[in-house]
Amino acid sequence: MSSLKSSNYPRMSKLRTSTSSVHDQLDKKIMAQSPFDNKANYGQFLCYQYHLMKHVAALYQDAQLATIIPDLQARDRSAQLLADFQDLNMPQPAAMPTLNELNASHYESLGWLYVIEGSKLGAAILAKEAEKLGLSDKYGARFLAGSEVGRGAHWRQFMQSIEKVELSEDQEQAMLAGAQAAFKFANALVEISYTHSPSTHVA
C-alpha cells in the first residue's frame, strides 16, 4: 500500500497503522524459523500456513462477507496449499485440538481478512526464496503464487471493497479490533504450530 496515497485509502491506512507493531512481530517470528533454509523447514512453514488457513476457512465461504468482497471465495488459497503438500509427499497436518474455532463478528471478520489477504503481498518475496529450494507456482509453492491479475491489482480490488462498504464508527472499530486479533492469533500460532510439528519429512 506504500505506493498508493493513504488519502485515497483512509480505512486501509488505519488498519496498517494500528497493526504495524504486531505485524512486525509476526514477520520476525516466522523468519526466525528459517523457513527457506531447507525443505524440512519449508515443510514446517507450510504446516503453519495450513493451520492458519484452516482457522479462517469459514470466512471465505461467508455469503454476507461476499456481498462486500465479490470474489471472496476465489481468494481462498486452501486448495493450492493442499496441492503443495501432495507435491512434496507430505501428509495433511493433523488438527490441533488446542485451537478454538474462529469467533469473530461480521465487522471483525473484515479485519481478519485484511490480515490474510495482505499476506499475499509479502508472499512475492517468499516465493523467490522458495525458488532457491527448487519450488515454484507449479510445484510445492503454489500457495505463494500471485493472482492471475497480478498481486497489486488483486490487493487494490480488496482495498477498494473495504473502502466502499458503509461502516459506523463502532463497526470500523470492530474491524480494527479484528485485524489486531488476527495478527495476535497468527503470532501465537507460530509457537503452537512449530511445537505440534517439530520435524517434517519433505520429499
TrEMBL record:
Q: Where are the transmembrane segments?
A: none
Q: InterPro entries annotated for this entry?
A: Haem_Oase-like, Haem_Oase-like_multi-hlx
Top-rank taxon, per record: Bacteria
Disordered as annotated region, ranges:
1-21
Q: Name the CDD domains for this protein.
A: HemeO-bac (cd19166)
Q: Which SUPFAM superfamilies match?
A: Heme oxygenase-like
**What is the name attached to this protein's record?**
Biliverdin-producing heme oxygenase
Organism equals Pseudoalteromonas obscura
